[in-house]
Specification:
The chain is an alpha/beta fold. It has 13 helices and 13 strands. Helix content is 38%, strand content 16%.
Amino acid sequence: MVTPVSMETPLGARMRINGREVDYFCGTSYFCLHGHPEVIEAACAATRQFGLGPGTLAQMQVYADLERRLCDWFGTEKVVTMISGYSSPMAMLQGLRDDFDLIFIDEATHYSARDAIPSLNKPVHRFRHLDADSLAKQLLRHMAPQQRASVVTDGVFPSTGGLAPLADYRKAMESYEGSILCVDDSHGVGVLGGSGRGSLQHAGLEGEGNFFAGTLSKAFGALGGIVPANASLADRIKSNAMILRGASLPPPGAAAAAITAMRLLETTPQMRTNLERNVKHMRGGLRGLGFEIEDTPVPIVSVRGDVDLERIHAELDKRDIVVKVTPASGYSDAPDVPTMRLAVFSQHTPQQIDRLLSSIAELL
C-alpha cells in the first residue's frame, strides 16, 4: 500500500514530507517563493488588515497595488486579474472572441484552454503537438479569404517542459492577415525572457497580435490568474468574460504575496541567475547519462527511455530524493510512455543536483 504524501513544510528545494527531510524535485515553485519568509509575512499582514476574502466590490488598496506592480513587470497598460490561473486563458479568449473566425489549437494544449474553446462558438481545428508544419497545413486547408485565425497553445507545456516554437507558428500565420497568437503561459511567466515576461519575450514576439495569459501560483509564489493587456482588451475581457462578473478575486493575502514576490525577484537577480545555472546543470548532466534532453531554459525536464522509471522513482525515494513519474498519457501533454518529470528550482544547490544525477547513474 502506498503511503499518502503529507507535506509538513512550505514547498522548497529541501522540505519535510512524512517526517523526513528530502530533496524535492517536483511541482512548480521555481523560485521557492511560496515559502519565502517575506512573502508569507506579506500575506499574513494583508490578511490581518483586509480579512480572508475580497468582498463583492474588492475595493481594497492591495489590488490596485498588485495591478501597478504587474503592469510594471509586463510593460502593459493593464493587467486583468482573476481567481485562478486555470481561468485566465478563457478570460483572454473570450475578450478576443470578436478578433478571430477560426481556432487552431495544439492537440496537447492544457485543459484550461481546451475548456475555454466551447464557450467561443467558433470552428476548431487541431494541429500536431509542437509542429509548425502541421499548423501551416491546417491553416491552408481550412482558412478562407479574409478569415482570421486564433492559434492557441501553451508556451511551456507542464508535463514535458516542451517549449512551443512560437516564432515558427508566427511564420506559418504570416499569410493570414489579422490572425492572432494566444498563449497559455502559466509556466513561462516569471521564468522565461530577458526580464521574466515569459515565452513571447523569449521568442522575441512581444507586440500587436500576440497575447498571453498566466498565473501567479507558480514562479510568483502566490495565487490568481492574469492577462496582461492594453486598455481596450482589458475592457473587452471585463465585458465578455463571465468569470470577472461571477467570481471573487484572489484573497487579499495572495495579492500581497504576489507583490512581495515580484519585488524580491526584481531586487534579487541572483534568483534568476541561479535558476538558469541549475537548469543547465540538470539538463547537461542528464545528457551525460545518455538521455535525450533538449537544451532549453525551461525548468521542467522530461526523462524517458528504455529504463524502469518506477523502480528508479522508488529507489530515489529511499535516498530521500523525491521526483515524479507520470504514467503514459497521464496529464495534459504527457507522452504515451511513462515519463520522469523533474522540476528545477533556483534554491537547489549544485550538490543536490549532483546527488540526484549520481543516484540515477547508479540505478540505471
